[in-house]
Write a structure and sequence with these properties.
Layout (H helix, E strand, L loop, with lengths): L2 E5 L6 E7 L9 H11 L8 H4 L4 E5 L1 E2 L2 E2 L4 E6 L33 H8 L5 H7 L4 H16 L4 E9 L2 E2 L9 H6 L11 H16 L6 E8 L15 H10 L4 E6 L2 H4 L4 H4 L3 E4 L4 E4 L7 E2 L2 E2 L4 E7 L10 E3 L6 E3 L10 H24 L4 H16 L2
Antiparallel strand pairs: 1-2, 2-6, 3-6, 4-5, 7-8, 7-9, 9-15, 10-15, 11-12, 13-14, 16-17
Length: 390
């Protein structure tokens, strides 16, 4: 069974990840992993924290001579900003007069108030440090391992931005071919397929930054060349779209998820929505001329590109602070401010790529099994042969 856990706080010593279930013999390309970590830090509208951190993976277990061993893989990602937070985030007790950088004015839209009520603390830093999107660096690293596995079987994942702050690509241009998305500059500031719209998005972000405000938007993540048959229709928690939706919703600031044309399909006739089925006699395969379903039917991948959209709210840390209440005095007060970003939509797209990779890799390993890459490759090849003879 594939699974992973992460640990670490935003301003703690480091982020930690442990991955279980990867087969032995998977070639680990640390340059690829570090590239994904770097991409998560990019994007027009990111804050000063990204200038401090230079995320790189330090693999501490489970890999030997560039290949997985079949046991748990462990890694660290250093928090360089830890040097400025040694006392406020010290694991050991500190002097009573020390500056703990406590946050007692909860930010609307953040975990602050719900978290302090749950854990009965008057310092929101006890909960906000773990709730911070800094944790997603560890998830991007986990997802990079998963994407290395999927790439061995021809599946590639990419994302692009559809909307930021009300600036949106024309609806007719939204369903961009997956090959165009894969060809986008992985390190572009927005990763929008429409260059003119991208300039408008950047201008809108700049204005929001001047105003002390933040912006949300929509990003789409696509997996190309996904084999049919991943997931299951037999139980609610095994449906691949349900698992993907949950994983995408767990990304900080994501408030809604759409798979395929799920939202607009609700306003159309069935004859306009469902993807008709055809058969290629020469290539011995079924295919569709459309992909309104987003590559999933009945909880199972159908062989088309897997497409999902995330709807990202404006992040809740505002220099133009909203009203709140002090946790200790109960007096009205403006919400606290933590160093933050203006817009994270492009970065959220990178995290969504990692999350989709995790979900697909888990489903892939469930279907094809094997303790080693050799077993996995043999099972996959046999399945492909069976499909060609169906």
């Amino acid at each position: 069974m594939f699974r992973f856990v992460t640990a670490g706080e935003s301003h703690g010593k480091c982020l930690t990840g442990v991955i279980e279930g990867l087969p032995s013999g998977l070639v680990v390309d640390t340059d690829f992993i570090n590239q994904q970590l770097h991409r998560r830090q990019l994007g027009h509208g990111r804050g000063r924290r990204m200038q401090i951190e230079k995320d790189r993976i330090d693999i501490t277990a489970g890999v030997r001579h560039g290949r997985t061993l079949g046991g748990p893989v462990a890694f660290l990602i250093e928090n360089k900003d830890w040097n400025n937070w040694r006392i406020p985030m010290s694991p050991e007790p500190v002097a009573e007069e020390a500056n703990l950088r406590s946050l007692t004015r909860p930010r609307p839209g953040h975990v602050d108030l719900a978290g302090v009520l749950k854990h009965q603390t008057h310092d929101a830093r006890d909960v906000l440090e773990r709730a911070s999107a800094r944790e997603t660096a560890a998830r991007v690293a986990v997802g990079a391992f998963c994407r290395l596995l999927l790439r061995r079987f021809g599946t590639h994942i990419a994302s692009h931005v559809l909307a930021i702050g009300g600036v949106r690509v024309p609806q007719a241009a939204e369903n961009v071919n997956s090959q165009e998305i894969l060809a986008l500059d992985a390190e572009s500031p927005i990763r929008c397929a429409d260059a003119d719209i991208e300039k408008e998005m950047m201008s809108r972000i700049d204005q929001a930054a001047k105003d002390g405000d933040t912006l949300g938007g929509v990003a789409e993540v696509i997996a190309a060349c996904v084999p049919a048959g991943l997931g299951s229709h037999t139980q609610w928690d095994r449906k691949i779209d349900g698992r993907l939706a949950q994983a995408l919703m767990s990304i900080p600031a994501v408030k809604a998820v759409e798979i395929g044309d799920g939202i607009v399909a609700a306003n159309r006739l069935g004859s306009q929505v469902h993807d008709e089925i055809f058969y290629d006699l020469e290539q011995h395969r079924f295919f569709r001329k459309s992909n309104n379903a987003g590559g999933v039917e009945g909880g199972i991948t159908n062989g088309a590109d897997l497409r999902a959209r995330i709807f990202v709210k404006p992040i809740p840390t505002l220099r133009k602070a909203l009203m709140s209440v002090d946790l200790i005095t109960k007096e009205p007060s403006f919400a606290g401010f933590e160093r933050s970003d203006t817009c994270v939509v492009p970065a959220a797209g990178v995290v969504a790529e990692a999350v989709m990779g995790i979900v697909l890799a888990a489903a892939f390993l469930e279907k094809f099994g094997g303790d080693s890459m050799a077993e996995l490759e043999a099972a996959f090849a046999n399945y492909q042969k069976q499909l060609s003879q169906f």
